[in-house]
Write a structure and sequence with these properties.
Blueprint: H1 3-32, H2 39-65, H3 74-102
Helix pairs in contact: 1-2, 1-3, 2-3
Length: 103
């Protein structure tokens, strides 16, 4: 995989992770206002985007595991950062939803 292809995969990961992040932050805003009606739908939407980002990441990891040289660039690393922090954000927001439900 060349640097351009890896950069495109990085952009894909950033885009899907960014969509998931936006959905999660919107969900948190709704929950803070007492609106719990869309929790499952919005979590599912975020999860679909996270799964697409994770698939793009896994495809790269599989190619590298098969011995292909990877010319890592900043864009791919940036994508990895977005994915990791969005997964963490999802976990934290799920816990926060439970706290808001109790309050």
């Amino acid at each position: 995989m060349n640097k351009e292809e890896l950069a495109m995969a990085g952009f894909e990961i950033v885009a899907y992770s960014g969509d998931a992040r936006s959905t999660l932050l919107d969900l948190l805003k709704q929950v803070r206002s007492g609106n719990f009606a869309n929790v499952e739908t919005m979590l599912n939407d975020a999860d679909q985007n996270l799964n697409l980002a994770h698939k793009a990441q896994t495809d790269i990891l599989a190619q590298e595991a098969q011995g292909q040289d990877m010319d890592m660039g900043f864009i791919f690393i940036h994508g990895q950062d977005h994915l990791m922090t969005t997964i963490l954000l999802r976990d934290l927001i799920v816990d926060m939803i439970e706290l808001y439900k109790r309050g």
